[in-house]
Amino acid sequence: MANSLEWYDFVIYGFFAENIGKLFFPASNSIAHLMMSLGVFSVGLLARPIGAFLFGRIGDKKSRKMALIGSLYLMAFPTFLIGLLPAYESVGLIAPFLLIVLRFMQGIAMGGGFTSSMVFLIEHADHDKRGRVGSFASFSLILGIIVGSGITTLLSYFLPLEQLEQWGWRIPFILSIFGSFLGIFMQRNLEEPSHYTNQKVIKNNEASGNFLFFCKKICVVMLLDFLNAIGFFLLVIFLPIFYKIYLKFPFYIAQLIHFLSLVIFGLATIGGGNLSDLYGRKIIIKITSAFLIFSSYLFFKCLEVDSVLTAFLIEGILAVVLGIFFGTLPATLTEIFPTRIRLTGISIGHNLSMAIFGGTAPLLATYCIEKTHHLAFPGILLSVAALLTFSSLHFLIEKVGKPLD
Fold first, then answer.
1. CA distances (Å), 371 to each of 59, 85, 374, in order?
2. Hey, where are the domains in the chain?
């Protein structure tokens, strides 16, 4: 529940990035507005490593539950306040400054949310079902995005574009506060994983406290997470913007394609987790990353035909492949670290990757298209990301069916 609410809060900004750019930044054209707005989106991602360290230490030293609920509290209020912010026309430069501050706070909260939920679930799971159980962390994340996309699609269909741009975009931000408090209420009675509580009183092996060991594992997480970082933000944030700005699809058409693809994406994550329990994490990651190495550029090249049906088919295929990969990831990452440093290690590695590569992906893709006038350029980014993730398999140890420690 917390994971869904946090990601709903975080990504609705991306769905309205173009409109927010027009309201909060002084610029002369829509592309400049979009670039500034995506820059602020990146600020939220760049703050994630701070939250990763903060909530990772809380989760490892104090309580997994405390880290999970604390990140939800921190996400709730900035999102609500974004919906109330005055525009640049009213208060000048104070508007973008406040927007940046609130996005930064959201980023800190995100640094602990997904990884806390992932570790919490998997430490509760049986050793032969970690892939399946962990995939629900991925699914809950996507569920929050689906809800955000669904609300955005409905608003874009029922409200005239002028009203949507003036005040309608604020509705999803304001509504988030009710869902956040519901999530906090529902998670008051969660119990700590017995695996975690037992390990707190057991002397950990020397490797778990070795700094060099810790840093090496973080590097493996970052490399493994490269495809997730680039692929996730190109699929979830960039593609609806791409449809509206470059293919000139109506807003509600772009959102409808995206909404249906997200449903496919979410279902594919469950499949990915189950497949990884049956056949192993490494083979699933190898197949999905290899497929995207050779197909990503071609997929984005096909989008240039400017067809709604083609856009849905291409995004649907990407959603299936990335979803299977994404569903495998929680168990894979959790199995890399010992319990004593698990949440800190995963949070730092995952959020560094998402901040450096993922958060900048929509901005970089937009910049490269503008400079090269080549609409298929994002496919090159996705292909390179898949290649780097494929190379990480050399350092990954298969632990399907084995104890966590």
1. 44, 33, 8
2. 2-395
